[in-house]
Amino acid sequence: MPSLLGIDSGLTVTKAVIFDIDGTPLAAARRRVTQFMPKARHVERDMDQLWTATADAIAEAIKLSNRPASDIQAIAATAHGDGIYLLDRSKKPLGRAILSLDSRAGSIVERWLTGPVADQSLVLTGQVPHVSAPSALLAWIKEHEPARFAEIGHILSCKDWLRFCLTGVAGTDRTEASTSFTDVSTQDYSPDALKLFGVDELVGALPHASRSDEVVGHVTAAVAKRTGLAEGTPVVAGLHDVTASALGAGGYAEGVVAVIAGTYSINETLSSEPRVDRRWFCRNAIVSGQWNNMSISPASTANYDWFLDQLCSNERTGAEATGHSIHALLAPEIEAAFNRPSSALFHPYLFGSPYGAAASAGFFGLGGWHDRGDMLRAVLEGIAFNHKIHVDALSDGFSFNQARLAGGVSRNPIVVQMFADVLGIPVTVTETDEAAAWGAALCAGAGVGIYADPQSDPRDVGRIATTYHPDSARSADYRVRYELFKDIADAMTPLWPRLGNLAAQPSQD
Length: 509
Description:
This protein has 509 residues and is of the alpha/beta class. It contains 18 helices and 22 strands. It has helices at 47-65, 106-113, 117-125, 134-144, 146-150, 158-167, 174-177, 191-196, 221-227, 241-249, 302-311, 313-321, 326-338, 372-395, 413-423, 435-447, 472-492, 496-504; strands at residues 3-9, 13-20, 25-32, 44-45, 72-79, 85-88, 97-98, 152-156, 172-173, 209-210, 215-218, 234-236, 239-240, 257-261, 265-271, 281-284, 291-297, 345-347, 362-364, 403-406, 427-430, 465-468.
């Protein structure tokens, strides 16, 4: 029976999911991948460890599927976008990968934003530079690690590294190519973009960009031995996880805003013409002549995961040991908190924000009578409020009247209803547990002719979708909370840098 393998590598977990060609998940396996934070604002991972974890997940998924690996007709990977995975000229990892949660290049980006580079970048590339963009990270490496910079042979993204590990072929796809160095009008690489950011020496290190559904290589003998995959299995180029999530959740279309509540706050909508604004990135869509307009910040469920790790660690460990979900365990606390008034607000800026790199997270309005449920509610509302900042920005440039929500929080009906109430538009979720992996699998299937194109989802999406409509009274209440949320952020804008400076001061004995 034919099947497809979609690999989805996020910032904390890498997954391998095998799907029947009708879209039914047959098996899924995941492995956590260590993040290294050697100093403030540096977030890295070991590239070889990532491949080892992914290979282990692939092997387990094949075993769990109870099907021969030869059933897998094609493979595609998707993964976190931005950040940077470097190879030297012999195609060996050049130090640790830098993740998209990294903000070491903040001072460089601030310099660009206050000078002419930002406006020039917006016109040329369709986006202003940000701290985890390849442009900013390469400029930082050139300035701070010149010996490493001189050794750069190939500039890859996360999913490109996994594709290279599978096939031995270095390259990227159109969606990932447009993170820094493409002309927004032609959708092709622009040497002027590299020159603008002061890294024009690297023009030869840019990876060849293929269609997301183009077969670019085949599983090698060594990988087949390591994972159990069949040697020669076709591998397609894959795509950025922002696009993969929207595709897999059925929200990849004009007139729809796809809201992906993952580690990043992802909010995107398609257009048939390029339209640029500082508040969103105008990047390549899967198809030539379409653009994916993304308003994002690293300020979504990474905050919820941090809360669980730091303040619910015992419960999480106990739940995992008994095969239960920490989310199900906490659901009654969260539901009770949503059913009572609360003054608690949370700004979800542990790793970044729309307010600049200096912003940080914090609770406001806490009292001694609040409990953990109130704090969890505040965290979830803060995540939704941050998504609304981005959705409101996109609504100024594009027309849409519905949202598609994906991400782990979309499994909780209370949270989905909250998103509908906060955004003030209908929010639809589909019964897709692994939306990004399925989006990758759709590209894999299109690459070998199983589907006409990546958007030819074989599922009856309408049958597996549930739409939540905003409640007018709750929406009115959320408008008040949202405006206060923004007012506090505005008031904190001059204070956040002062808070950050405290960490840079030597401790007093």
